């Protein structure tokens, strides 16, 4: 029998903070816009009818957006025409697909114009470009960054010609990519991308949508002034803790019935934290695909406005965002590894007072800054 003591619990982190949407530092915008590769986003809105939610958010739905999938050689991202049209004019997002981050080569193009290669040792040594050792896989994985916006990165310059030779002539790597692009006005239109990559069978896809209504759902009573991620164990408390609320929100996304649990239940003994109330109708919307930070920011602003003007007056709205598990970066250029779970996600609970809670969940192989 295996010794279970040898299997250590993964060192995951859950960071919590309370802030205001009116704060001059605009921390909520940084949280959203610096998390580039978003696979899924959801809204949970208690006390509202599904028809009301669909009507109000109709112009902000991620299902309106498209993204592309195509098998591309790496050198297409360093061609002069591509850089001038998509890198210098707008925000281009690309991520290698069906690649296992900890064991295979992975590639990303950041909207900042960085072509980022996460390579195993053998590929790195064969490629011949200078990089740095991975923080999490020392001497086994290397990170190469190429600044496509650099003034010295254009045809004729030594750096450009070296990179071009390595990627096109020496080692012609190709991957299946998922990618999208927004112009300088943050408008998403993939027709130009499809036209540019027409030789590579570029296939468009829409983000999938799942909107459902939950009837007579029990929801925790929370206080927006909560400042700590702690559970409250006093039966006489006036509001549920931020930790218990976050766990309850996870149960909603897992479709766990937690209105009334039983200690003898085979499936789940989890119950809604106390104190709680019954919401006659609660709407859960979720979109999955490739969702830009700008679309998520639009959802947050629409949620903020909905809380102010909705006659149904929901007590809060939860915005949940899941990043791709095998992305080489989480926020900005912070290195991300899969290890046990690949978590890189965040949740914002927005209140009518413009106060918000932010939960940031990170896996064991993540740089948090």
TrEMBL record:
InterPro entries named in the record: RNase_P_Rpp40 (IPR013893)
Any one of the GO BP annotations: tRNA 5'-leader removal
Record Pfam families: Ribonuc_P_40
A GO cellular component entry from the record: ribonuclease MRP complex
Coiled coil, from the record: none
Parts of the chain that traverse the membrane: none
GO molecular function, one term: ribonuclease P activity
Name under which the protein is recorded: Ribonuclease P protein subunit p40-like isoform X1
Organism: Actinia tenebrosa
């Amino acid at each position: 029998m295996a010794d279970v003591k040898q299997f250590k619990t993964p060192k995951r982190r859950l960071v919590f903070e309370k802030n205001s949407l009116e704060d001059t530092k605009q921390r909520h915008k940084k949280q959203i816009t610096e998390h580039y590769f978003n696979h899924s986003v959801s809204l949970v809105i208690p006390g509202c009818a599904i028809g009301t939610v669909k009507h109000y958010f109709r112009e902000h739905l991620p299902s309106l957006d498209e993204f592309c999938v195509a098998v591309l050689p790496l050198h297409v991202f360093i061609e002069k025409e591509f850089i001038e049209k998509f890198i210098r004019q707008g925000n281009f997002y690309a991520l290698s697909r069906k690649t296992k981050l900890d064991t295979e080569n992975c590639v990303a193009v950041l909207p900042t114009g960085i072509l980022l290669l996460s390579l195993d040792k053998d590929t790195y040594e064969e490629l011949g470009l200078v990089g740095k050792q991975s923080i999490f896989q020392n001497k086994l994985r290397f990170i190469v960054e190429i600044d496509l916006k650099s003034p010295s990165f254009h045809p004729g310059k030594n750096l450009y010609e070296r990179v071009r030779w390595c990627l096109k002539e020496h080692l012609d790597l190709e991957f299946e990519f998922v990618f999208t692009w927004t112009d300088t006005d943050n408008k998403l239109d993939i027709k130009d991308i499809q036209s540019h990559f027409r030789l590579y069978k570029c296939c468009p896809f829409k983000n999938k949508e799942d909107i459902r209504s939950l009837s007579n759902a029990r929801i925790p009573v929370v206080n927006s002034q909560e400042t700590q991620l702690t559970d409250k164990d006093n039966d006489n408390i006036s509001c549920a803790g931020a930790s218990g609320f976050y766990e309850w929100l996870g149960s909603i996304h897992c479709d766990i019935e937690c209105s009334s649990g039983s200690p003898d239940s085979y499936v789940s003994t989890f119950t809604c934290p106390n104190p709680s109330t019954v919401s006659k109708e609660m709407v859960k919307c979720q979109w999955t695909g490739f969702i830009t930070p700008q679309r998520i920011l639009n959802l947050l602003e629409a949620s903020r406005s909905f809380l102010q003007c909705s006659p149904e007056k929901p007590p809060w709205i939860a915005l949940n965002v899941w990043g791709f598990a095998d992305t080489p970066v989480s926020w900005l250029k912070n290195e991300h590894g899969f290890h046990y779970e690949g978590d890189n996600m965040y949740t914002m609970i927005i209140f009518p007072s413009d106060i918000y809670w932010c939960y940031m969940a990170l896996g064991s192989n993540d740089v948090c800054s």
